[in-house]
Structures are given as structure tokens and as C-alpha cells.
Amino acid sequence: MSEPPVRKHDSDFHWEGVAVRAYKQDVGVPYRDVTRQVLFDDPALRCQLRYFEIAPGGYTTLERHQHVHAVVIQHGRGRVLIGSTIAEVAPFDLVYVPAHAWHQFRANGDAPLGFLCVVNHDRDRPELPDADAVAQLRTNAAIAAFVRLE
Amino acid sequence: MSEPPVRKHDSDFHWEGVAVRAYKQDVGVPYRDVTRQVLFDDPALRCQLRYFEIAPGGYTTLERHQHVHAVVIQHGRGRVLIGSTIAEVAPFDLVYVPAHAWHQFRANGDAPLGFLCVVNHDRDRPELPDADAVAQLRTNAAIAAFVRLE
Q: Under DSSP, is residue A94 helix (H, G, I), strand (E, B) or coil?
């Protein structure tokens, strides 16, 4: 058994025995005001279940990869870019990030955005957009206005 | 892409494009007042993410299996049996069901219990307790009082 049977939720999306970590270990990767908590990490599950929280005005890294994400919003408000789709999200909405889709999650300016994310335990590293990819993304005016790259 | 990028949550834990299904397909398996919704079922994820809802007074089947469960409570109140542990659960609590642990989820009498459950996409079939297993479980008075077998 790699986890206790029950871990209680404290207030504000913290859990007993679960550390609040930096969103990314990497230096120089652009994002703002995001934390990460690994809720389940049993190799038998073949997936990890993580909780991410973006503070008001913050955003995750714009990136893509082979592995997919299955996301359930838990609280707050925000917007997401998934491929060429930009959508508003609210509690309990489902977000699917398919393979190789550029994606970024942003919290609204006046609200945090907290979400669960299921991902393969073994997975490829994310790719950041190079100058050509940024130029291509910016040919879409809505995407150009949405993305945060610093 | 096997799912749309965003599926909105309607009220009361229903989602656009997600069918509310019977908890079990099998005939004669004991449970009461439970529905199942499959939220993500992409083979690339190697896991399914399901939402189960137990109506007030209802309960899932007492069972065990090789595969594990990673659960996040979403709303309502209830109690769970995981191996020899009985615990109260409330929104956002984490429940881990290890391999071969007898487990049952019960909603309180005055509240539903809704929870997300991550599980291997390919998995073994659940085992129900035979008379010997029931007798063994009932040697623990708290478990004897908890379990529902009809």
C-alpha cells in the first residue's frame, strides 16, 4: 500500500500529508503563480493524479507533449487554450488535452483556478514553443491575445 | 482526439455528452442507488476517470480486486470501508483502495455521496465475498455493523 486509505481535505485545497510544491522544477520555464500537489502516485495505477492551483492572474506554461491530460476543474474561474480552442472554465468542467496540442491554463484576474489532472505515470517531457511556433500561434488573433509567454 | 477539449458541467453533477449509467452491468450484484458516469476513457491515458454518485442511504458493492482505486470526494457526505479502516468522508477528501482490500462506500442517510475514481483502463473483475469471507469480516464488530450485503 503506497497511500493511507483516507487523507482528509483541510480548508483551501490542502490535504494532510500532501506537500505543496513548485509547479515546475525547471529553471527559466515561463509560468506565473502556480502550485502543484501530487495526490496519488502509485505505479500500479499507471497514472498520477495531481492538483494544480493558479492564483488570480496567473497561468501555466504554454507547452505541448505526446502524453494527454484529463482535467476536472475543482474551484475558481479561468480560461484554457487547448489546440485552437479557447474556453471559459468553472467548477467541475472537464478539460481534455490531446497529444501534441498546445495548451495553457489561466486563472481569471479576480479568482484562482484549481483543478485535478490525471496523467500517465511515465511520460515524455513537455516541449516549449520556439520562435516559429509562437509566430504560427499568433496568426490566430484570439490565441495571440490569450497566450502568456513570459 | 477521443474527447472534446471542454465539456461543461451542468448542475448537479451532470456533464454535456456524458451518459448517466447503471453502476453495474451484472445481475444480482448487491448495491443500492448508485449511478456511474465515465468522464474520460482514452486508451492513451491508460486509466479511466469515472464519477459515481450514491443517493442518500445507498451503497456500492462490497468487493475487492487486484486493481487499485484513487478517489476524490466531490460532494455530499458518507462513510467508507477500506480493508479494516472505516472513515467518514466529505468533499475533496482522498480515498485510496489498495489491491485486494475489501471496500464499500456508503452515503449518509440524509446526503448523497459523489466522487471521482481513477482506475486502470484494463483491469481484473471484482470479487464478491463468499460466506467464509463474510464470516471473517464479521469478526470485527465495526465492520459487521457497517457492511451492506443485499
A: strand
Q: How confident is the model at residue B145 (pLDDT cuts 50, 70, 90)?
A: very high
**pLDDT above 70: percentage of residues in chain B:** 99
Residue A1's pLDDT band (cuts 50, 70, 90): very low
Task: Please answer yes or no on whether A97 and B49 come within 8 Å at the CB atom.
Answer: no
Mean pLDDT of A103-125: 96
Give the DSSP H/E element, type plus range, for residue B73.
strand B69-76
- B4 strand-pairing partners: none
Report the predicted TM-score, pTM, of the whole model to 2 decimal places: 0.95
User: Which of B81, B117, B137, B143 is labelled catalytic?
Assistant: B117
Judged by a CB distance cut-off of 8 A, whether residue A74 touches chain B is yes
Nearest Cα of chain B lies from the Cα of A52 at a distance, in angstroms, of 14
ipTM of this model? 0.95
DSSP string covering B51-116, please?
Answer: EEEEEEEEEPPPBB-SS-EEEEEEEE-EEEEETTEEEEE-TT-EEEE-TT--EEEEE-TTS-EEEE
